Amino acid sequence: GMQKRRDGEGEEEPAKSVEGWILFVAGVHEEATEEELLSLFDEYGEVKNINLPLDRCTCYVKGYALIEYADLESAKQAMRAVDGNELNDQILRVSWAFLKGPIRDR
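RE: above sequence
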């Protein structure tokens, strides 16, 4: 079978997507732009992709973004640095978009 993965890492290990390592950013201001997010996150490494979903009715940002990094260390650094910081007077919450295994409350 496909059960060959034994890294011996902690439970909070993120799952690597096909493309890279993806952070889920909550608390994004409805008028935030991809440029603002990029300038915030590219300090920590190469950002491969930003997904900033818009609400189709209001055309404003839905309040979250997905930031994709090429490598894990950059993503980890960005998460530590940005989580709890403010952008446009709103607190950003950064977590892994995808985790291996069940997600439990901390």
